[in-house]
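User: We ran a pulldown and think these components assemble together. Before we commit to crystallization trials, I'd like a predicted model of the whole complex to look at. Sequences follow.
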Amino acid sequence: MSVFQSDDPLLQVRNVTRYYGDRVGCAEVSFDLWPGEVLAIVGESGSGKTTLLNCLSTRLAPTTGAIEYRMRDGSMRNLYQLSEAERRLLMRTDWGFVHQNAADGLRMNVSAGANVGERLMAVGDRHYGNIRSTADDWLGRVEIESDRIDDDPRSFSGGMRQRLQIARNLVTNPRLVFMDEPTGGLDVSVQARLLDLLRRLVADLGLSVVIVTHDLAVARLLSHRIMVMRQGNVIESGLTDQVLDDPREPYTQLLVSSILQV
Amino acid sequence: MNDTAAIFDQGEYNFAYLDEQTKRMIRRAILKGIAIPGYQVPFASREMPMPYGWGTGGVQVTASILGKDDCLKMIDQGSDDTTNAVSLRGFFEKTAGVRTTYETAEASVIQTRHRIPEKNLREDQILVFQVPIPEPLRFLEPRETETRKMHALEDYGLMHVKLYEDIAKNGHIATTYAYPVKVNDRYVMDPSPTPKFDNPKIDQMAALQLYGAGREKRIYAIPPYTKVKSLDFEDYPFEIQKFDKPCGLCGAEDVYLDEVILDDKGGRMFVCSDSDFCEERRAEGHLGPMAADPAAAHIGGIQPEETAR
Amino acid sequence: MPVRLYLNNVGKSFTMHLQGGSVIPVVENVDFSVEAGECVVLGGPSGAGKSSILKMIYGNYRCDEGQILVTVDDNIVNVAGAEPRDILKLRDDTIGYVSQFLRTIPRVSAEEVVAEPLIAQGTSETEGLETARALLSRLNVPERLWTLPPATFSGGEQQRVNIARGFIAHYPILLLDEPTASLDAANRAVVVRLVEEKKKQGVAMVGILHDQDVREEIADRIIDVTAFRSEAAA
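Assistant: Here's a predicted model for the assembly, 805 residues in total across the polymer chains.
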């Protein structure tokens, strides 16, 4: 039941460079992402990992370079040549984006059920009963009690909000999910629960994930592959445990040696 | 001819207040709106001699389409004799000198605030709506740049999120006015704060409908005989309000009723919101259950001497 | 018997950038092969590079020189030059690793930890869990612990959970990294039996075993790793 069966990459990234004026956001990044693969982008603040994530998720156009994605019909499409309508459809069906701050990814003034149901309604589901039962099912999968379905996320704890955000993203069975520090700012115990949930969902659904994190423990737990970024460049990449257990670059060795041992 | 119309004759105002260039600009916006049913056309809304919220959008639309031979009816919440209607009717009597009427059938242009007459409108009539907030997506997505994109891409899932919330919180779609509609299978539109009771009248209406929002600087239109569908769910279909009793005065059923408080002791009655419709029925001899009630006598409405000239 | 694993002139060193870029040589010219049904034990003192060799075979450490060839069905894969996803695939269905330390995952029960590799190979969840429970029982892990996350278990219990996890799935190649260290005699005997069973199934094994008795019982061949010491280090 290995998820690494497909020979065709889902995402092909070639020489992606993004300048902010004269300053480099990220430079000459290339990689392939296969179905079911979890790629962690690690590095310290300002290393360009979020710039890269935004370029990949069509939230920020790269200055140069190409990003191609395998659409559900099997065709490879350059993301920045999609029409706005195609791009939006992709973002609310085949993709997910989990923000560090759940409020950025949720509608805080509508109920949990509507938050989860929004994507379904956006793609034309017009049956209230079906939408609601699907939302209820997803709340269960992210361990939110059914009786919270009509509550606003404002009344939710940080961990619950994050789980709601995940449900909202996964309800359309996306194939690719971008995550930006999904466990950042949460208590350690809440983090552990969220990580476990993410790990299970990713494995069960065979999701491809690009996750940005500065937490190497999160990268180790969730990712198959890792890219270490520094000053806009990818300085080292490979199998997650290989990079973390046998780091080659000076900066990676510094990062790994900086982990607090508990 | 009345004394206010004389002011127009003295040349103090251009016909219908607005200068001709402005009218042309607004007519172009109207034509564009008619060509793209339900699409909000931006226009250079003028300062009018009345506050925003009084119908500056509707007034500019009316001023731009009014001709000397037109007969104008003004409605405020269904009636011709409340403040807004009286003031705006006076405005056009003074600045355009056109004939005005209370009778729906007689009018060629009807400007309305929040109601559609009960009587079916005809192809030779135009209905002008006063719109406070034209953007149906506004309360769900505050960014205008984003809502415009959503309209352009027909990205309307959010509208159903609102209806979903209604059902989740109230067990049914609780939106009773400004109920969103989809025009000609394309644009989602706010029919202005009319009760949803009037939504079926918008669909396939014989008359041209023009919507003007002065503060928001938007004009939109529904051409005659256009398909207009109220948004809903398959399992929660659109329904209009139902009243369990007829009009207290004229006995009309299946019309929109207003509640009227009769005294300090809890006495109340329900009467037609459309006062002209109610009066006409009473003139034809229809009587409601409370028509003979002395308490209701003074809300029979309009005294003969007040009728429009 | 067919060769399952062949290390061809493998070399490895560490460059410690945080210590002024000093290069620590580990091994060079490592050259041996393992056949199906054979258990090869790496011998030599601590620091000789036994563990590094095992980790290179598993793809956990990079291989600087030479080839690590693994037979997969009719193909031969070079771990040393393989893409990450190819190594992950090898770990799914070809190479198993029994290490001393359990990297616990929060909130996952012991039986699920054990069953996971088997389920990943396509066994149903029910059957996977059943096999896991049987194995935990053989390794004398108390039944009351099976449904609990192993994070709070004693060292010996965690180790036995991990041994069960390492042995449960069907890997043609199995790497044993001190599986019996700190186990009591009864459990050592269980591990020896598990290894014997794997041999019968034709599994090729490479092990590090400090326990003299166990080593003698299961080793078909002992390779002295000191022979591969880098000249620079010697």
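The longest strand of chain C covers residues 3-16. That may be worth checking against your pulldown data before setting up trials.

User: Thanks, that helps.
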